[in-house]
Sequence to fold (556 residues):
Amino acid sequence: MKKLLSIILSITAAVCSVMPCFGVDSPEEELRFAAASDLHYVHPVSTVDTQIDSEGKVSFNSQSGKYTAPSGFVIDSFLNDCAENDECDFILIPGDLATYGRDFPQEHENVAEKFRAFEQKTGKQIYVINGNHDNGSGSVTDHNRFVSVYHDFGYDEAFSVDEGTCSYAVDLNGKYTLIALDSCDENYSLHSDLNSSRMKWVHAQAEHAKKTGRKPILMMHHNLLEHNPFQTITMDGFIVSTPYITAARFASMGIELCITGHSHINDVKSFTDVLGRTVYDFSMSALSEFPAEYKLFTVDDSGIAYKTANVGGIDSNALSLVCSGYTQSQLAAMQEDYHGFVSEQNEEKIGQEIEKILSAESLGIKEGSPFYPLISTALQSVTNYLDMPIYGENSLSSAAENLGLTIPDSEFTTLRGMICDAYAGTVSGRKLYTKGSAQYSVLTKTVAVVLRSSLASAADSELLGSANALLERAGVSDGIANAVMKRNCELFGFATPAEKLAFSLIYSLFGGYIGENDGTDNRDGFLSTAKETGISRIADFFKRMIDWLLNLFRFS
Fold:
């Protein structure tokens, strides 16, 4: 036994002695950085009631000064957080630095001034790339001007730039190379343009990284992968035109980490090619609006560790000096908990958007159309139900009971609140409304009651009004449509077979917006990128063999 053990130990020692020849890494260098996207800086307007249009000019539309005025102070707070955080050695920003930067370069100048002061104060580097709001062909800010304004934030360290675009590459340390890729189509304000020339340039930078013993990471504005179901169809301007082909090419280049923005969603997706090479796409939410969050990363040979952080508070006293009209309670809320403040503002904004959607005109049905009275009445009924209590007297639950149905108990109070909660979960990476969850059950059943009640009410008043009047004289109080709806509920419960099919189709198309279960935490987690080599497998085999022999010898 002792002789056999000595032979095994000798072989193990020999294997271990040659392992350095196979490129075993020296002590690893890790990357520790923050990433924030879609800063959307807007120079503060004078009052919160000021309305600004898509060109940054004063007008009257839905984008109020109260939502945009704090943007610069949010950036200041984010930079202060990064300055004081020992876990942040540098910052990545994948685009949309200024909301109206294409036509108002002064917005870029203001952002660059903030960045410059941060770098001078901390010695930490900021790396940027452009977004669709930042530059454009024929705009005041073209790619040359963008590069000029942000020269100190990546371009000054670049070993390679892609002429005619905003792309550049820089070595971060002895272990990693950053590829900052201009994914924008300069001729359009929204879509991507990863043409063959840009992809060849990316490949060249990845090859440079490989030859110099570094790993490439990539930053661009447009999403690499679909972060919502059928994003290439429903949000085609927010994702590269051929996501899975592009992801396969990136994976083949050795790119494992991609930081993106544009869609304002906190979400992580991965793609693995046929050879088992994986690339992770981290889509970042917008810093300047709800949920006012960013991410902290630690990357090394073992994998990618990440966690979500939020802007704790802003200097609302300074904000009040340049933009009047905020209440003292609003200023205090922004100072103490900006994340909480924008959460409340988000409910207001989403509520406004819901009411805009719930109109016949938004569906393309104009007044005078034969369907206008019916559709308009039904949608108005839905609007009325939005803020009706879900539980208690005169509630959606009582409306459900009138149909012989029951809405499950939950913490929700209104349908509007549920919709806002579902949207907030999507944007912030807390997608709770998975099919079969309690939230999804309450949401779908509440919606079913609202739609059935609204349609029956509209049909009784607009289509069957005369017939219902005759029945009422005969002592029949229920409308015809309402009676039919009740009978349907008795037969089928919350949904007829056709309605169940419709719910399934809707969830298969849009369920990923409000709920997912892909095994990856969107907010905080660790993703392994470690790859087991042939030598490490041999070493592990001999280690397990020694352990087995030692145990055998110990008990012999």
In short: The radius of gyration is 29 Å.
